[in-house]
């Protein structure tokens, strides 16, 4: 499918305004994605206000795209709305737990991806900001998110002012397993990652960071154990504050 | 977008075989979805073998669709492959923690949704089985999943032998929040859920289960607090067994 297969993340946008009705229509397409028990365990916060974008910028680790995009959509796992419906209808909700949070996280992600496909189908460009969950606590304050909600991911959106090249992926056989998972030995890993490691951009990454291997750029620079542990503890505390874990 | 907006879950499939090359091509479209740091934190297990489907059936709480579908795709959050690449390249992975699991869960869900869109675009029908995470432990045994992997969701897939009606969704204004989250009062909740509550199928659900309200069907029958707590503890133990939490 051409549209899906040509997806690239867009980080530079033109000044063209995104029509509010178009925005609603692509979010509607998001709500047509499958959802657990048809509970629709998500909300979408639209950010257009430039002052609020300024405040969100550091929460996205100052990625310029968070400020450049005319629209930010923060996708929020939401058991608040559903639980309120229960409480107003003589029903006792019991959704402050891990499996319910997981269901909401999946629902939210499926809706977000449908929104991205619909956006691109309408000529818009998108970029996921995976930073949202890292700074969930600050998003909750800034976007006034109530308990039993959790910001999962943000999609930056607008009309593209660039046409980046398709990014690399490992060969499909590295993803697919027939019937049972076939674990990888060194030769297979070498083969799967050979193309990625051969890219000029990869070699530049390695050189710039004074590393020996591309994998070290990930473990020592981009996704470090210490950082992962810091943000994991922070996320767990936020989930407790949000009453997802009691 | 017509394709997204007309999505319905398919639970009855014809005998028509899904061409293996078509299957690969739709999974390829899954891999074109955005992914955290281009790490592609997922694997896909293809189940076609009828004996294995028989064994998976109870893990999906005996939903007939799990057996009827010619193909099951189990989408697995996977930090095993990436961590192996690190270990084989003198890099120390540090991904046994909540934020890494969350990144993998989101990556996996985005890929799954792209696969579903690509499948439907090729005339196939799909149904998500949200039961996978509930019985992750048993999936791990049956599909031989290694540590640092976790089965997130399953997509049942084949050529449709039914044309169900579009399911209801709450009005879009119930999902969207401008700039900040606007919490819901009783009048708003009543309005958002009025259509769902008015459906004949909803009233049948309420009557069949001897309940007073539709919300009680969710809290007392379909998604019960006790069950949620049981499966949450099970999931947490499985995440520990899989070394996602140390």
UniProtKB/TrEMBL annotation, chains A, B:
Q: Name one Pfam family in it.
A: Nitroreductase
What InterPro entries does the database record attribute to this sequence? Flavin_OxRdtase_Frp, Nitroreductase, Nitroreductase-like
Q: Taking every annotated instance into account, which residue ranges of this chain make up the domain Nitroreductase?
A: 7-159
Instruction: Recall the GO molecular function terms of this protein's record.
Output: oxidoreductase activity
Keyword Repeat belongs to the record: no
Cite the SUPFAM superfamilies for this sequence.
FMN-dependent nitroreductase-like
Keyword tags? Flavoprotein, FMN, NADP, Oxidoreductase
Q: Which family does the record claim for this protein?
A: Belongs to the flavin oxidoreductase frp family.
Recorded protein name is NADPH-dependent oxidoreductase
């Amino acid at each position: 499918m051409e549209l899906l297969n040509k997806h690239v993340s867009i980080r530079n946008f033109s000044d063209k305004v995104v029509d509010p009705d178009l925005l609603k229509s692509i979010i509607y397409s998001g709500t047509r994605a499958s959802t657990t028990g048809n509970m629709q365990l998500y909300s979408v916060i639209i950010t257009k206000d430039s002052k609020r974008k300024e405040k969100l910028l550091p929460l996205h680790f100052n990625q310029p795209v968070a400020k450049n995009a005319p629209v930010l959509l923060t996708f929020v796992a939401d058991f608040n709305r559903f639980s309120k419906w229960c409480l107003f209808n003589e029903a006792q909700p019991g959704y402050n737990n891990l499996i319910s949070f997981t269901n909401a996280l999946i629902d939210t992600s499926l809706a977000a991806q449908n929104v991205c496909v619909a956006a691109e189908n309408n000529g818009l460009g998108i970029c996921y900001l995976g930073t949202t969950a890292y700074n969930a606590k600050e998003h909750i304050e800034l976007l006034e998110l109530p308990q039993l909600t959790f910001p999962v991911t943000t999609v930056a959106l607008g009309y593209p002012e660039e046409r980046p090249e398709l990014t690399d992926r490992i060969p499909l056989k590295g993803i697919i397993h027939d019937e049972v998972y076939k674990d990888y030995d060194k030769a297979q890993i070498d083969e799967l990652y050979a193309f990625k490691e051969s890219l000029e951009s990869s070699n530049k990454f390695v050189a710039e960071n004074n590393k020996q291997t591309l994998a070290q750029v990930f473990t020592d620079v981009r996704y470090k154990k210490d950082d992962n542990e810091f943000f994991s503890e922070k996320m767990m505390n936020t989930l407790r504050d949000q009453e997802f874990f009691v």
